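Record type: ASSEMBLY
Status: queued
Input:
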Amino acid sequence: MTTTTPPGLRLTLRGAVLGRAGAPVLDGIDLDVVPGEILAVVGPSGCGKSTLLRTLAGLLPALGGEVTQDGDAITAPRAERALVFQDDALLPWRTVRANVELPLAIRGVPRAERRARAESWLARVGLDEHGAKLPHRISGGQRQRVQLARALAAEPRAVLMDEPFGALDAQTRAGMQQLLVDVLRGTGATVVFVTHDVDEALFLGDRVALLPTGRVLDVPRPRERAAHTDPATVALRRGVLESLTSTH
Amino acid sequence: MRARRWSIALRGLSLAAALGVWQLLTSYDVNLWLRFEQFPTVTDVARAFGDRLGSDAYWQDLTDSLTRIVTGFALAAVLGITVGTAVARSRIASDLLGPVLEVIRPVPAIALVPVAILLFPSNEQGIVFITCTAAFFPVMVSTRHAVRALTPVWEEAVLTMGGGRWRILGSVVLPGALPGILGGLSVGIGVSWICVISAEMISGEYGVGYRTWQDYTVVDYPGVFVGMATIGLLGWITSTAVELLGRRLTRWLPRTEGSRPPSPVRHRNPVVPPAAAPVPLTKERVRP
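Status: finished
Output:
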C-alpha cells in the first residue's frame, strides 16, 4: 500500500515569459511556490492562469526566463506533477476505478496493489460505491472528485489544478473545496490552484498570487469560512479585487 | 418487449409484402413499361435455392467468397487503422503517404482488376487485393478523422501521468477513435462485398459472384436470383457481425434510450444528480 509521503516540490518562475510562440500571455513573471503550500492563483479571464499551469505541468514550454522544479528546468510532463483539468478529462471508456488506476498502471504498480490504492482513494473522496461505473453514469461533481482521486493516487509531489470546480454549482463547489482541503492534508504535495473566484482563492490558498502582476499575498488562518467575515480577511478580499480591477 | 415484437413483425411484413408483389408481377407476366415476363417467380427461385443447397458446388462457392472477403477485409482493417492513425498522428507520415493515398482513393477498386491481374500470380490473390483495397479507404479515412477529432485533454491527462507514446496510443488514441473506426469498418464490409462479387464475375474461379455470372450466361435466371439472394444474405450476416462487434466494443458510449438494445438490468435514471450537500461530503450524501 502507500509508502512514505514524498516531500512537495518547490516550483519557481524567474522572469518567465509564457504563452504560445509569437503570442506571449505573461511576460517577466516571478513566482516561488514553497514545498507543501497551497498557492491559489487568481486573475481575470484570459490573463494567463491556465498558461501558467500548463507551463508548470510541462505541456507548454516557457518562451523565456526560468521555470524550474527544485532547481531543475521543467521541459516535459512528469508524473510527479499531476494536473487536474477544468474539463472532464476522465477517459470515458474506462470505469471510474480504472481511471484512478491508470497513473498507477503507467508507473508499473502491480494490479492487486493499484486496485487497492484506487479503491482507497475513491473511498477518501466518497465514491467507493461508484468504482464500477462509467464516468457518464455519475454527476459532474463526482467526476471532478474522481479526477482528484486519480491525480492523488500516484502520490505526486505537486498537484496543479486548473479551475477544477469552475463548472459546478455553488453547493457542490463548496463541498469540493472542503473535500480538497481534507484529502490534501498529510500528502505533503505542493498545490497550485488556479481560479477566477476570489473567495475560493482565499478559502483554499495559504497564499494568493495575483495575475498578471505576479504579486503574492499571505492569507490569514485558520481556514474557515466564518473567518472570511473578520476585518483582516474582508480587507484582503477588497485589496485583491481592487488589484485585479486595476490590472484588467 | 412489446415494441420489439412489433418491430420484428413489421420487418417480417415488409419482406413478405415485397415477395408477394414479386410473385404477383412475375406469375401474371406483367408487361407494362417494366417487363416481368422473363423474370422467374418467387417459387421458381425458392425451388432453385433448394436444389442448390443440396449441391457441393454451392457450398464451395460460399466458402470461397467468404474466405476472400474475410481475408481482404481483415487485411484492410489492420492496414486502414494503422495507416489512418499514422497519417493523423505524424506529420511525416501524412506528407509521405497523403498524396499517394489521395490519388488512389477516387479510383474504384473494381477498376484495379487489370492492375491485380498484372501484379499477382493468381486470380485468388488478385480478388483478395481488390476486396482489401475497397475496404481499406473507408477504414483509413474514418480512422484518420476519428484520431484527429480526439479530445486533446485525454492525451494531456495521460502525458501528465507520465505516459509515453505507446501508452497514449493504447490507452487514448485507439479506444477513443474506436467509434469512428467502427463506422469505417461498417462501410468497408459493404463495399468489400460489392467488389468481391464484381471481381469474381470478371476473373474468378468459383465463388458466389462467379456462379451468378455463369448462370446468367447459360440463361438460368432462377440461378441468378439464387446468387443474388445468397450475396444479400451473406452481406447482411457479415455487416450485422461488424455492427454487433462495434456495439460490444463501445458499450461505454452514452446512448439514448431508443438506440440501446433492451436489457433487463438497465438503469432508468442513470445520471446521478450533483451532490447538493455542503461540507463535509459523506458517503451517504453522494449515494444516488
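Annotation: The two ends of chain B are 27 Å apart (CA to CA).
Annotation: Residues 1-39 of chain B form one domain.
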